[in-house]
Amino acid sequence: MAPQVATIATLTPSKSRYQLTARATRIWEVAASQNTQSLSLDMVLLDKEGNQIHTTIPKKMVSSYKENLHEGKIYRLQHFEVAKNNRSYKPVISTDNIIRCTPFTTIAEEEDQSTPIPQHKFEFHPINSLHERSNKIDYLIDVVGLLTTIENKRQVMTKGGLTLLRHAYIQDERKETVRVTLWGEAANLIDETMVEMKKDEVKIVVITSMKVVYYEGADQLQSTYGTKIYINLDIPEATKLRQSLDELTPVTIIDISKEIHVPEPPFKSLKELLEMELPDEKEMFICQGAITEVRTDVDWRYRIMTTISDGFAFAKLVLFDKEAETVIGKPINKLLDIYEQENGKGRVFDILQQCIGKQHKFKVKVGMSRFGYERELKGQKTFPTNEDIETKIVATQESEKAPMQQEEPSLPRIEWKAPVQTPDKTEKRKKAEKTGKGDKDIKMEGSSAKKKRSVAVSETST
Prior knowledge:
The protein contains ten helices and 22 strands. With 462 residues, it is α+β, with helices and mostly antiparallel strands. The strands form three sheets. Strands 1, 2, 3, 4, 5, 6, 7, 8 and 9 form a nine-stranded mixed β-sheet that branches. Strand 21 and strand 22 (375-384) form a beta hairpin. Helix 6 runs antiparallel to helix 7. The longest helix has 23 residues, at 439-461. The N and C termini lie far apart (117 Å).
């Protein structure tokens, strides 16, 4: 039976009965990590009606299509499956469906490439509303902004091995700036040489398929396998942004390898951090303390909210990613695996509570909580320590003393003690079971003993 000619809007979940003509606007490979083999070859297809859909080619078929599919070309697809897209981080928001290619699927380049299908379609999210998408995993977003700064790419060690990393900064019409982190191949999407040669040229960039993460006290953008970067596209959104900006600043290039070494931040007690004038958001300090509370009423998958104490003050401390893992003692993905198991929620909460009492040294920034209710510390680096907290505090205080100031007595050692549990009636019940007497009998024996003691005292006095 001949396949049914369809548009993306008319596709419904079914097997192998459609034919679709569409442009491959974006193509990318998906892998388990940056340095592993492909799990699938994915595309965004756009048809003549302006609708788009996520399309995936499974691992076994990647080699057959990888060299023959090209971004921007128009293709005719036949005998493919349509299913509900239940994946996380969907690259297309406008449809709930996904096209799955099978061994019976054919993808042929159209001879006539003049079919009036748009070259691109984006689903933009405003930069000033990134908080709405913070740490959400249902779908990815596209953004448009003025590229203001890029750092040179460098290699960093991750769980998957050495990976490329580059930071860039973009700005919207309100001059709100957001940091963009480009991982792996996405770090190569900005050509430093091209930017250097045309550094006086203003660059409006479109960046696709980005995650929004709340990190180091701010919402930031992170790349995914589907991320693409387009510079100075002739689209209405880019033109509007260019016209709205009063000052169009050329791109600044920062060479990280030539950065001046930053000295170790000063040590401060928690009391000093809480009472000092609110510092610049980039300024960092070293502090030390024992964890006294780990909140389990917030989403611990992305950050943990703790309270720490150095024996003289308590402070709220937020820890993200690797710094949280250092405190917990387990990778977050391991906790997620445990959470999905039977009684997993309780086991995870027990693991989080085991952090209480552990002592660490922290490199922190000082700021206000996300909603501005109270001052909190934002952890930048975490490492265990065997140093005495009070020794560090005394050393800091000594260095700030006037020469003639008298010595203060040494501070007591800080020891974490588990909260005292309120005694229950277990001991009384055990005694009752052994003697065969009830609680009332035991109480009466106790009152009789008290009476005997009082009588003995009165006789002695007479």
